[in-house]
Amino acid sequence: MNPIVLIVHDIIYRPIFNLLILFLAIFDLNLGISIILLTIVIRLILLKPALAGNEMQKQMTDLQPKLKEIQEKYKDDQQKMADETMKILKTKGAGPLKGCLMLLIQMPVFIGLFFVVRTLSETEGIIDMSSLYSFLELLNLGGLEISQVNTQFLGLELLNSGEIILSLIAGILIFTQMKLATLNRQAPTIPNIPGAGANIPDLNKVMKFMNIFLALIMMSFVYSMPSGIGLYIVTTTTFSIIQFTIQYKEIIKIKLKSLTQKTKN
Predict the structure, then answer these.
(1) d(CA 77, CA 111)
(2) Neighbours of 94 (CB within 10 A)
């Protein structure tokens, strides 16, 4: 086996496969419950970096007045503007990429679960247990056939694609998550480095467009993938919304109150 493939298999695919099989054994081979519990466990493990990522984005918003002050002060000296901006970001320990890096930690998990569910959806007979850890062999799941697994959940066939309702729910939740995030931050105003090209467009307007665009993309993705993947996306997005709401409930209340007053006026 290719060394890179082997590393991805052992570090990403295998742990997720084993955790899913463990939940299947505990919860009477119910795939829907197993995917939900697997998602929650993983999100709890990644809770600290996720909270840190949200806080990093908030710091970028808090720094906006200072960054704008630097832009105004050094508007005739682009190099000095860029230097002072980076100095502020380093001093405060903030940066637009740090929050993104926190989110990227979750990508291997999604990739691993994607391949696990896809493998199950392509299985016609006995499930391949060659990736099972030796201590889980005590579960006596050797010879388990995919037909024995309960792949029905809330009217969904988790190994099939084309579920419109699930796709709509995923899209709405993704849009809600992104909308909540924009209540807590605005796109960073970073000056251009000389020679880098045209000025950066209004990133706040770009973010509003991206919220809708991302929701539509995810709807299409969920529709085309096995519904088990869609169930994961719905569960992890719901977790994110709850986590964010709890973390910034006071800020969200203030922002929503302000938006309500503007709407009435």
Answers:
(1) 45
(2) 20
Contact yes or no for 152/158 (Cβ under 8 A): yes
In DSSP terms, 9 is beta-bridged to: none
**Per-residue pLDDT reduced to its tens digit, 135-154:** 887 777 778 888 898 999 99
Would you say 102 and 49 are in contact if contact means Cβ atoms under 8 Å apart? yes
Global pTM value: 0.73
- Residue 105: pLDDT band (50, 70, 90) is low
Two tokens, residue 29: 């081979």
Which pair of structure tokens corresponds to residue 87? 């100095």
Q: Render pLDDT for 4-15 as a digit per residue (tens, 0 to 9).
A: 777 778 888 888
| 3-class state of residue 30 by DSSP | strand
CA torsion sign for 78, 83, 89, 91 is negative
Distance of alpha carbon 120 from alpha carbon 131, whole angstroms? 13
Contacts of 2 (CB under 8 A, 6+ apart): none
Give the tokens for residue 168: 């709509």
Which residues lie below 8 Å from residue 207, measured CB to CB, with a gap of 6+? 182, 186, 187
Measured CA to CA in angstroms, residue 184 lies from 127, 181, 240 at distances of 45, 5, 14
Mean pLDDT of 107-127: 84
| Tokens standing for residue 92 | 């405060």
- Taking the C-alpha atoms of residue 177 and residue 91, their distance in angstroms, rounded to an integer, is 30
CA-CA distance, 158 to 138, in Å (whole number)? 27
CA atoms within 13 A on the CB side of 171: 16
Residue of 14, 114, 54 whose CA lies nearest to 239: 54
Q: Which two tokens stand for residue 192?
A: 């251009």
Q: Distance of alpha carbon 198 from its chain centroid, rounded?
A: 31
